[in-house]
């Protein structure tokens, strides 16, 4: 979890692993979670569903998101809503970071 009352750099909180995906839960509450992800180039999450709405905020790089069959490219500064119970997948063509907020 992230410490309170402190200014932190999102870039420093999670570092991509070689050929992998790193994550860090920043906040967890009954209403949802906020998780920071770092993807190495060519990494991704295969198609899956979640019972919660999710908001993806791109912090670095670019993501290719497939949501309910629609393919979207989201770059730095973008935000995308992935609705609950809709199949989605995430791919990072290059080293990329995103903040994922799950809303229960």
Helix-residue proportion: under 10%
- Percentage of residues in DSSP E strands: over 45%
How many beta-strand segments? 9
Order of helices and strands: HEEEEEEEEE
The overall pLDDT, averaged over residues, is 94
Cα shape? globular
Measured between the Cα atoms of the first and last residue, the distance is 19 Å
Please state the CA-atom Rg, rounded to the nearest Å: 13 Å
Helix and strand composition category = mainly beta
Tally the helices: what do you get?
Answer: 1
Query: Which residues form runs of ≥5 with pLDDT under 50?
Result: none
Spatially, the strands of the biggest sheet line up as 1-2-9-4-7
The major beta sheet can be summarized as: 5 strands, antiparallel
Could you walk me through the main structural features you see in this protein, from its secondary elements to its overall organization?
The chain is mainly beta and 104 residues long. 4% of the residues lie in helices and 58% in strands. It contains 1 helix and 9 strands; from the N terminus they run H-E-E-E-E-E-E-E-E-E. A 5-stranded antiparallel β-sheet has the order 1-2-9-4-7. The protein has a 4-stranded antiparallel β-sheet with strand order 3-8-5-6, with no helix packed on it. Strand 5 (62-67) and strand 6 form a beta hairpin. The radius of gyration is 13 Å and the shape is globular. The protein starts with 9 loop residues before the first helix and ends with a strand.
């Amino acid at each position: 979890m992230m410490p309170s009352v402190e200014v932190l750099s999102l870039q420093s909180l999670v570092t991509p692993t070689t050929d992998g995906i790193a994550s860090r839960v920043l906040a967890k509450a009954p209403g949802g979670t906020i998780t920071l992800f770092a993807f190495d180039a060519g990494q991704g999450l295969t198609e899956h569903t979640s019972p919660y709405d999710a908001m993806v905020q791109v912090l670095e790089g670019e993501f290719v998101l497939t949501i309910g069959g629609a393919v979207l490219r989201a770059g730095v500064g973008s935000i995308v809503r992935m609705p609950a119970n809709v199949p989605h997948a995430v791919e990072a063509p290059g080293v990329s970071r995103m903040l994922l907020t799950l809303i229960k």
